[in-house]
Amino acid sequence: MDMSKYIGNVFLKVDDIKASGPIRVKITDVSEGRFGKPDLTFDDGTRLSCNMDSDDWIDKQVELVVGEIEYDGKMNEAVLVKPISPPIENKAPLKKPDFDDEIPFA
């Protein structure tokens, strides 16, 4: 019996990804977690605490894999988030008006 629909709001760990292999999910929410770090909530009810944040992540498809990161001077296994959805377009900065034009006064 698949019990995943009853789990809800379970934080994923390295061992979870190792046991199942890479997982493809859609980000449904980004909220502030412990220590000011963002928590990602996925469409299957699982969650992941991460070190980077962006509201632009909502509704994006990602793949969760096991990889290594450096922490406290040594390499440690961690759950990595790999994008699947197309990259977020960089929005062009607003052009500042040029106010250096001379205005003739009569």
- In percent, how much strand structure appears in the residues? 35-45%
Give the overall pLDDT as a whole number.
81
Largest sheet: 5 strands, antiparallel
Strand order of the largest sheet: 3-2-1-4-5
Radius of gyration: 21 Å
- Secondary-structure element pattern, one letter each: HHEEEEE
Q: How many H/I helices?
A: 2
Q: Portion of residues in helices?
A: 10-25%
Tally of individual domains? 1
Structural class given helices, strands, pairing? mainly beta
Spatial shape: elongated
Give the end-to-end Cα distance, rounded to a whole number of Å.
86 Å
Number of strands: 5
Q: Low-confidence segments, ≥5 residues, pLDDT <50?
A: none
Question: Could you explain how this protein is built, in words?
Answer:
The protein has 106 residues and is mainly beta. The protein has one domain (4-83). Helix content is 10%, strand content 37%. The chain has two helices and five strands. The chain has a five-stranded antiparallel β-sheet, with helices on one face. A hairpin with a 4-residue loop joins strand 2 and strand 3 (47-49). The protein is elongated. The model has no long low-confidence stretch (mean pLDDT 81).
